[in-house]
Design goal:
By secondary structure, this protein is an alpha/beta fold. The protein has helices at residues 62-74, 76-79, 93-101, 114-126, 167-177, 195-205, 217-222; strands at residues 32-36, 46-50, 84-87, 108-112, 133-137, 154-158, 183-189, 225-226. It is built from seven helices and eight strands; from the N terminus they run E-E-H-H-E-H-E-H-E-E-H-E-H-H-E. The strands form two sheets. The chain has a six-stranded mixed sheet with strand order 5-4-3-6-7-8. The protein has a two-stranded antiparallel sheet with strand order 1-2. Helix 1 (62-74) runs parallel beside helix 3. The longest helix has 13 residues, at 62-74.
Length: 227
């Protein structure tokens, strides 16, 4: 998408086996730390604290797993010299995976609302990435902090399509961030018919292309994911 001009586990979580209900009780999953290597693409693996205390953004979701694995597998050279910002990062899965697996020459920014800030910072420290990754607040539809890059080279977003009233706010923020040379890697799971309205509108605002080079495309497409 571009502008038109628990304790650590040895097994990698299956991204398509993660709970699919968007509205979940914050108490249904106790805080855990997962060790994720994305099919041996990360060594050492990413350590990710999951905590639903502040909302469902604090857990792993399928689109984040798919997007992070795709970027680590196929986009390492493309990303290493870019300015990168992640929207709706939750605990920071995608951005932290990229920063851990790729020798970036610029700080990477993971952003979300205030309730997720502590968890993002915790996961940055957990992976010793405090010099490479910065956590910031970005409320969709609101003015952006001057501390964030206004037109990053790369914009990342995974599982940000879940609440229809927020679609215009997310699209407005994307319009702010996507400059003439920005590439947005956007992955989401269709959970309800209305979710496709987001992409219909996005196609009118941006140049949108489906990813065709992911060897796992057939797997995640069958699970209703779009990248």
């Amino acid at each position: 998408m571009t502008s038109p001009n628990h304790s650590s586990n040895d097994e990698e979580p299956n991204p398509l086996a993660i709970g699919e209900e968007f509205v979940q009780s914050p108490n249904h999953l106790p805080p855990i730390t997962s060790s994720i290597d994305f099919g041996e693409l990360l060594d050492p693996p990413l350590q990710l604290q999951q905590d639903l205390k502040e909302g469902c953004g604090g857990q792993l979701w399928p689109a984040g797993m798919v997007l992070a694995k795709y970027l680590l597998r196929l986009k390492r050279d493309e990303l290493k010299d870019k300015t990168i910002l992640e929207l709706g990062a939750g605990g920071g899965l995608v951005g932290l995976a990229v920063a851990l697996g790729i020798p970036l020459t610029h700080p990477l920014y993971i952003t979300d609302q205030v309730p997720m800030l502590s968890l993002m910072r915790q996961n940055i420290e957990l992976n010793d990435l405090s010099t490479q990754v910065k956590a910031g607040i970005l409320d969709w539809g609101n003015p952006m902090s001057p501390d964030l890059p206004s037109h990053p080279d790369i914009l990342l977003a995974a599982d940000c399509v879940y609440f229809e009233p927020a679609f215009p706010l997310l699209q407005a923020t994307m319009q702010q961030l996507i400059g003439p040379n920005t590439i947005c890697y956007f992955c989401f799971k269709k959970r309800r018919r209305a979710d496709l309205n987001f992409i219909k509108k996005a196609r009118k605002m941006f140049v949108v292309r489906s990813v065709e080079d992911d060897p796992d495309k057939g797997v995640w497409e069958r699970e209703g994911l779009f990248l």
